[in-house]
Amino acid sequence: PTATDYLSEIIIRPVAVIGSVTGLAMFVIASPLSGLASIPEPHDAFKTTWDDFVVTPYHFAFRRPFGDYSVELN
Prior knowledge:
By secondary structure, this protein is mostly helical. It contains two helices and no strands. Helix 1 (3-37) packs antiparallel against helix 2. It is elongated, with a radius of gyration of 15 Å.
C-alpha cells in the first residue's frame, strides 16, 4: 500500500460512513413508497430500496478490503 492509498482511505471511509447514515435516513423516508411499489409483481421493491440505500453504503464503508474501491456486494 502506498501513501495515496492511506490518504484515500482516510477520506473515503468517513464519507462512506456518512453515506450509510444518510442512506438509512433516506430509506426511512422512502419506505412507505417502496412498500406500495412492492404490491405488484415481483414484490421486491422494498428489498431493492433497502439494498440500494443501506446495504451497499454499509458494505463500502465497513466490509470492503483496504485499497478496493469497487461497490460490488459479495
